[in-house]
Write a structure and sequence with these properties.
Order of helices and strands: HHHHHH
Distance between the termini: 61 Å
Low-confidence stretches: none
Number of helices: 6
Largest sheet: none
Helix content: over 70%
Mean pLDDT: 95
Number of strands: 0
Length: 162
């Protein structure tokens, strides 16, 4: 018995959703690892603020990784689980040794831009397939990330004024 038998989704359209979710999973996994590195290695001005913020962010991304993987399973796919696979597929690049807060925030903003672009495309594909579960998930992510971008841009402006 397959979950899709009960979800009333067109199986011919679900494959493209699963592929897009796999891409998103790879990017989120690399993003998670980058955030952990920023949290561990950040120094200098803004340390206390950014150290806590990066921890908050990687905790959130960890939950999203799980939600994306579970959504892939619900749609009949098998989520990738090897980091070597993520690195081959991801658009988000690994970052190492970054200690400057402003540079870390710039990396986060660039990563969010990449994720937002993918999520908007996935939202469109899922909508065409009447996959409201994926649409809702992507809409929730976009709402959070748009606010996060706004806040990080505001922080960056303040950091430049000092």
């Amino acid at each position: 018995m397959k979950t899709l038998n009960y979800l009333h989704l067109d199986t011919s359209k679900v494959d493209s959703i699963v592929d897009a979710l796999q891409q998103l999973l790879a990017d989120y996994q690399v993003y998670y690892t980058n955030l952990r590195g920023f949290h561990w290695n950040i120094t200098g001005h803004g340390f206390f603020t950014l150290h806590s913020k990066f921890e908050e962010m990687y905790d959130d991304v960890s939950e999203k990784v799980d939600e994306i993987a579970e959504r892939i399973l619900m749609l009949g796919g098998t989520p990738a689980n090897k980091f070597s696979d993520y690195l081959q597929q991801a658009n988000v690049q690994e970052v190492s040794g970054l200690t400057c807060g402003k540079e870390a925030v710039e990396n986060v903003l660039n990563t969010l831009a990449c994720l937002i672009k993918q999520e908007r495309a996935l939202l469109s594909v899922a909508s065409e397939a009447n996959d409201e579960g994926t649409v809702s998930l992507m809409s929730d992510y976009l709402k959070e990330q748009e606010k996060q971008v706004w806040m990080l841009v505001a922080w960056s402006r303040a950091a430049c004024e000092k």
